[in-house]
Amino acid sequence: MDRPEIFLPAARQAALEAGRYLLKGLSQTKRVTYKGQVDLVTGFDRRSEEIIYDRLSRAFPGHSFLAEEEIKRDRDSDYRWLVDPLDGTTNFAHGLPVFCVSIALAFRNELILGVVYDPNREELFTATRGHGAYLNGKPISVSKTRKLDRSLLATGFPYDVRTSRDNNLDHFANFAVRAQAIRRLGSAALDLCYVACGRFDGYWEKKLKPWDLAAGALLVEEAGGRVSDLAGKKFRLPGPHIVASNGYIHRPMLEILSLGCVK
Ligand code: IPD
Ligand code: CA
Ligand code: CA
Q1: d(Cα 87, Cα 215) in Å, to the nearest integer?
Q2: In terms of CB atoms within 10 Å, which end of the chain has fewer, N or C?
Q3: Number of domains composing the chain
């Protein structure tokens, strides 16, 4: 395997370019189409994906590429890019400035690079396996909060929230009466980055896709946190369930998650 850092400049450039494009679109009227009852997409998601694909495929033509909207290229390669061109589409479509671009690279399905760019706050989160996590070039680490009742948590709800009983509302209720507070930002990648830099102490969510999770999961690990599935096993692609924390509150979080009432 090549050193993961060699892939960083192209990934960073792609994220910045796509993020700046999205920011310009924030105040414009968007044509929204629905992928499901609540799952929407705009032309900006698709164009952002093209920007990222153009840049990465020019730099690494032999790599595989999996993005949320349309572009999927299976090549005979150990390297695969996982791209969410706009994480937080619902926020974006409503003009709420909480969204980002998320780009990860896996080698034989193990995460080796993660880049998340929030153009609204001009925050660029980067991590490469074994070399720590950074926000705008400065090292970041997870929080030191040791108790769940002092913890600020984040979560999200799946797109089948209206039709499935396994919609996370049970876990949300269980945490709401035990944690200091819970936030629902609407961007899984930013939720994970905020765990990585200590703004959140923990985060959990179910039924996510690999492009939602990949970059942020590596960021949390490289920032000294813990990332697992709901049973506490080390997080592996493709997910889809995730618990990420500063490590101290991980076990209490898993205990609360085991109380879930959906059968
Ligand atoms: C969504 C966001 C949201 C999460 C959803 C995701 P999208 O991604 O990450 O926070 O709760 O499950 O699908 O659709 O905005 O890319
Ligand atoms: Ca997403
Ligand atoms: Ca998306």
Answers
A1: 12
A2: C
A3: 2
